[in-house]
Design brief:
Oligomer: single chain
Shape: elongated
Structural class: alpha+beta
Helix content: 10-25%
Strand content: 25-35%
Number of strands: 4
Largest sheet: 2 strands, parallel
Radius of gyration: 21 Å
Number of domains: 2
Strand order of the largest sheet: 1-2
Length: about 100
């Protein structure tokens, strides 16, 4: 079963918003609009974050020499002083030779 990661953003309007609650709801980003006049600007700010997140992924293709069974692959990314990794299992049953990557 593949788990899908869902991102959450929140926007607070007015001075009565509790910042700690807004942060909990918008775990991937949050913003305040002081009044309705600033609301469009605030939505644009969050929209840019969503756009940047949506366009920050890479497609990896992997040509495995393993042909049968379930295997684990780990991908690591390093950029300047930032580092991240993810691991996933894949089912290689039915894989055939002839990769052309």
């Amino acid at each position: 079963m593949r788990i899908k990661k869902i991102t959450f953003y929140s926007i607070g309007l007015g001075n009565e918003i509790d910042e700690s609650v807004l942060k909990k709801i918008g775990k991937n980003g949050f913003a305040f609009a002081e009044n309705t006049t600033k609301l469009v600007e605030t939505f644009d700010k969050i929209a840019k974050q969503v756009f940047d997140d949506a366009n920050s992924y890479y497609l990896f293709e992997y040509c495995s020499p393993k042909r049968n069974g379930t295997h684990r692959v780990k991908i690591e990314g390093i950029y300047q002083n930032l580092k991240g990794s993810t691991s996933t299992d894949f089912d290689a049953n039915g894989f055939t030779g002839g990769c052309t990557l």
